[in-house]
Design goal:
237 residues; globular
Length: 237
């Protein structure tokens, strides 16, 4: 359960552009410090924490967690993205366990049957949920890998008219994201995400917006979740 072949193939075409801060992933590089600082601020000490970055892409967020001492496993279904991630980590002298796999396949390889004790203190789904076919099934797989009292971190796009205009039309035409990156039908209302996570024993503790400031050409954390939003939850059982 997860990305369709067409969705994962989108990211095969981006190659080494993952680490070009002025290229087609410019907006991702702009939000990266913002989302990492938000996540780290909610968790506190990261040293020694086992982190699973699902849909890690080129490893832009994974590397930030490793730099703070976390033990990171990054998974993705795009071999090209993972090649870029592995290459950059090697150049940066960082050790990250990158794997070409899905959450369900990872569980099998780790011997986790969703009834035994899961292995990760932190599970991240950042900029991946809006590319998933079966959201409920995908989140069930993700949450099954999270320890009790573990943190589920997320960042995605709201399903609103504003999001359709800004996250697709404006972002693509102003080269903030590659054309064809997003499909409005896959966008997710916060209430939908909260409900599905609750069904998987994860209680959402906080949701904030990531608002774009056109004057400063940068993002900031706000209470406006109309377009991009991020947050975290804790696993109850």
């Amino acid at each position: 359960m997860g990305l369709s072949n067409l969705e994962s193939q989108k990211f095969d075409s981006f190659g080494k552009e993952w680490w070009d801060a002025k290229g087609r992933f410019a907006s991702l590089h702009k939000i990266n410090p913002l989302r990492f600082n938000y996540f780290a601020g909610k968790i506190g000490e990261l040293k020694g924490k086992r982190v699973l970055d699902i849909g890690c892409g080129g490893g832009i967020l994974s590397e930030e967690f490793v730099k703070k001492g976390a033990l990171v496993t990054g998974i993705d279904l795009s071999p090209v993205a993972l090649d870029a991630a592995k290459s950059h980590a090697k150049e940066s002298g960082l050790e990250i366990d990158y794997r070409l796999t899905s959450p369900a396949q990872l569980a099998v390889s780790l011997g986790t049957d969703f009834k035994s004790v899961p292995v990760f203190d932190i599970v991240i789904c950042a900029e991946v949920l809006e590319h998933v076919d079966d959201l409920a099934g995908f989140l069930k797989d993700c949450c099954g890998l999270l320890k009790k009292e573990g943190y589920f971190l997320f960042s995605t796009i709201n399903k609103t008219v504003s999001a359709k205009f800004f996250a697709i039309f404006i972002a693509e035409n102003f080269n903030m994201v590659p054309k064809g990156t997003h499909d409005y039908n896959r966008f997710i209302r916060p209430s939908t995400l909260v409900n599905i996570l609750s069904q998987n024993d994860v209680t959402v503790e906080d949701i904030k917006g990531m608002t774009f400031d056109p004057l400063g050409f940068e993002f900031k954390i706000s209470d406006n979740t109309n377009i991009n939003y991020l947050g975290y939850g804790r696993k109850r059982a």
